[in-house]
């Protein structure tokens, strides 16, 4: 990346910068390869932040199917993480997981399960997982909620086998004016579901797979407690990436923890990248790499749930932090993840232009059907999920659950995050895949504007200018006249 003019003497964040188009030989946005350059090698450079209100098994499975990876938070017991890993690894890498119910399930219960997945259908199956019918909100209109699924379900179904081309499934669904195809084996046993959008996506994305062809998942380790033991247990449960994470990554306790985790990683039978953070300086990046990090997580204070900068005055505008740390990591043959502050697809593109190997997103993904929180509805009818920061009093209280009341209360005084926020679902884009579609469309397009066929070329060729607040505002679309 180079600056259009002399870079300013002060640090910059995403809103401060823009990219200038350059001559391009890349003829189609579909020709751009978005494989991450972080050495983890996911087909998509997107990571879901290790936040309790966001990253769980549904998020992990859905994002990995589209080529990214989710990090399960450090606050969950290893037995719970192991169960999540088992479920993600058992999920189909292409077909969406069905919400399935038994024929005698009540309509009310079935409806309560529908928001768990973006496809909006439940599949009614018998005791041997054979398909009997489907049920959506449309089928339930005006029906007694105590009715049983078998009496309400639709039986006019499109069933396809695993080897049916997605394009064919799309055409058949379109011809039948249906939204959902059921993928079954020769015994009519349910394997998964495919929506029309899912058919399109399966031709646009590749899943993030481990060497055994199963979906990938990462898990976080904090710096307190028996760090090595947690890392060992996480590896035993099958996680593919370990993330050592604390607010101030450039501290002695972090370096010791990282060395302990790296030692566990070195004993593993397979290659396990270790990610560590958070830092925002070249010095911090170097020390984490020296202590065993393959990838350094960059960002102090840009997160949407974060009060660190207001509480402490500490942090660094994220674009400059990413640029500086990425240069340092690259010189050492390593990479960084840009963590936090992403609110638009442009921010992902700018982080990648600044040299990030992948981009970590938290709060934006909180407002999706796949995040861990319960779906709620505001008095004005808008759907939302509750989110909170991992350094908020709420998170600290959960993390210190085994400590005495005095210690817990005292720890809660050191909060650096918001305990409650409402993340509204975009009615047009309620699922995390809908947001990924927008991000990927934006980033592919950014690459072609820069004449880049992949992310290495993008980080080399991008030309970045500095803009005023008016320059940023000029780029915002106007949905009504002024
Ligand atoms: N990216 C960011 O800007 C930030 C991210 N977070 C996220 O919140 C989560 C919780 O992190 P964390 O608060 O580190 O909790 P941890 O449970 O990981 O504990 C942090 C440990 O480091 C010590 N410590 C020393 N200095 C600091 C400091 N300035 N801030 C925090 N701890 C410090 C703490 O001791 P003692 O409590 O005795 O001081 C404690 O033992 C993580 O996921 C982290 O990424 C949190 C804040 C900022
Ligand atoms: N200072 C704090 N930072 C936090 C907290 N919880 C999470 N985080 C950081 O934010 C990113 C995600 O950023 P987002 O803008 O996408 O939401 C996450 O990965 C952490 O590094 C917190 O309580 N305080």
Structure write-up:
With 482 residues, the protein is α/β, with parallel strands linked by helices. It has two domains: 45-75 and 211-430, Alpha-Beta Barrel (TIM Barrel); 99-204, CBS-domain (Roll). The protein is built from 19 helices and 20 strands. It has an eight-stranded parallel β-barrel with strand order 3-4-11-12-13-14-15-16, surrounded by six helices. A hairpin with a 5-residue loop joins strand 9 and strand 10. Helix 6 packs antiparallel against helix 7 (196-204). The protein starts with a strand and ends in an 8-residue tail after the last helix. NADPH dihydro-nicotinamide-adenine-dinucleotide phosphate is lined by residues 50, 222-224, 245-248, 251, 253, 278, 299-301, 303, 306, 308, 340, 390-391, 399, 414, 416. Keywords: CBS domain, NAD, NADP, Oxidoreductase, Potassium, Purine salvage, Repeat.
SSE inventory with pairings:
Elements: E1 2-3, E2 17-19, E3 46-48, H1 57-65, E4 69-72, H2 78-89, E5 99-101, H3 107-113, E6 121-125, E7 131-136, H4 137-140, H5 149-152, E8 158-160, H6 166-176, E9 180-184, E10 190-195, H7 196-204, E11 218-221, H8 227-237, E12 241-245, H9 252-267, E13 274-279, H10 282-290, E14 295-298, H11 308-312, H12 318-331, E15 335-339, H13 345-353, E16 358-361, H14 363-366, E17 376-377, E18 383-387, H15 393-399, H16 405-412, E19 421-424, H17 432-450, H18 455-461, E20 463-466, H19 469-474
Bound molecules: NADPH dihydro-nicotinamide-adenine-dinucleotide phosphate and the ligand Nc1nc2c(ncn2[C@@H]2O[C@H](COP(=O)(O)O)[C@@H](O)[C@H]2O)c(=O)[nH]1.
The ligand Nc1nc2c(ncn2[C@@H]2O[C@H](COP(=O)(O)O)[C@@H](O)[C@H]2O)c(=O)[nH]1 is lined by residues 49, 51, 278, 299, 301, 303-306, 308, 339-342, 360-364, 389-392, 416-417.
């Amino acid at each position: 990346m180079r600056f259009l003019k002399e870079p300013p003497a002060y640090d910059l964040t995403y809103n401060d910068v823009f990219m200038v188009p350059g001559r391009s030989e890349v003829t189609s946005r579909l020709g751009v390869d978005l494989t991450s350059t972080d050495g983890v090698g996911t087909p998509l450079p997107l990571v879901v932040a290790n936040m309790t209100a966001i990253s769980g098994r549904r998020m992990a499975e859905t994002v990995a199917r589209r080529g990214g990876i989710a990090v399960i938070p450090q606050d969950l017991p290893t037995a719970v993480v192991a169960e999540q890993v088992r479920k993600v690894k058992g999920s189909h890498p292409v077909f969406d997981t069905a919400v399935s119910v038994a024929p005698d399930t009540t309509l009310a219960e079935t409806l309560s399960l529908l928001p768990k997945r973006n496809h909006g259908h439940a599949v009614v199956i018998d005791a041997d997982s054979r398909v009997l019918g489907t049920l959506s909100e449309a089928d339930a209109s005006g029906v007694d909620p105590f009715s049983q699924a078998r009496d309400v379900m639709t039986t006019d179904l499109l069933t396809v086998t695993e080897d049916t081309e997605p394009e064919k499934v799309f055409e058949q669904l379109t011809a039948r004016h249906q939204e959902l195809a059921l993928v079954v084996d020769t015994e009519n046993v349910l394997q998964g579901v495919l929506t029309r959008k899912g058919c399109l996506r399966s031709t646009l994305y590749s899943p993030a797979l481990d060497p055994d062809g199963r979906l990938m998942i990462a898990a976080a380790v904090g710096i307190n407690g028996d760090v090595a033991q947690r890392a060992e247990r996480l590896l035993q449960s099958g996680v593919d990436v370990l993330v050592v994470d604390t607010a101030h990554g450039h501290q002695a306790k972090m370096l010791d923890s990282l060395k302990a985790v790296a030692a566990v990683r070195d004993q593993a039978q397979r290659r396990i990248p270790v990610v560590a953070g958070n830092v925002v300086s070249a010095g911090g990046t170097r020390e984490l790499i020296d202590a065993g990090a393959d990838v350094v997580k960059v960002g102090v204070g840009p997160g949407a749930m974060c009060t660190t900068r207001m509480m402490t005055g500490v942090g660094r505008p994220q674009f400059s932090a990413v640029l500086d740390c990425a240069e340092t990591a690259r010189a050492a043959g390593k990479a960084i993840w840009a963590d936090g502050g992403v609110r638009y697809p442009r921010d992902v593109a700018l982080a990648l232009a600044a040299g990030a190997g992948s981009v970590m997103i938290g709060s934006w993904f909180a407002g999706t059907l796949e995040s861990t929180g319960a779906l709620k509805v505001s008095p004005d009818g808008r759907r939302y999920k509750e989110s909170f920061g991992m350094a908020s009093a709420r998170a600290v209280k959960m993390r210190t659950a085994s400590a005495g009341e005095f210690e817990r209360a005292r720890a809660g005084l050191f909060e650096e995050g918001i305990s409650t926020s409402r993340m509204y679902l975009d009615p047009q884009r309620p699922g995390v895949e809908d947001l990924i579609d927008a991000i990927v469309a934006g980033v592919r397009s950014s690459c072609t504007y820069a004449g880049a066929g992949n992310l290495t070329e993008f980080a080399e060729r991008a030309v970045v200018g500095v803009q005023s607040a008016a320059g940023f505002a000029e780029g915002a679309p106007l949905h009504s006249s002024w």
